[in-house]
Amino acid sequence: MVLNICLSPFYFGYTITYLGTFTFTNISEIFHIDMSKETAQGLFNGCIPVGAGIGALTSFILLQKLSRK
Questions:
Q1: Nearest 5 degrees, angle CA 62-CA 51-CA 61?
Q2: Is the pTM of this model over 0.85?
Q3: In which band, very low, low, confident or very high, does the pLDDT at 23 lie, cut at 50, 70 and 90?
């Protein structure tokens, strides 16, 4: 458990770095995205920390409801 807690910031940093280099040419062709490349990439990269924050805030509530007591 402690190892997972210690390694999670490294994985989060790796995810932000890896997805920051993601190209949107294929994705925009497949899903027919009509916005500019910079805007789509900014929204995609902004979803990662926002999702992590929402997950961190809601994990306490989920643990209270789903854990065994």
A1: 15
A2: no
A3: low
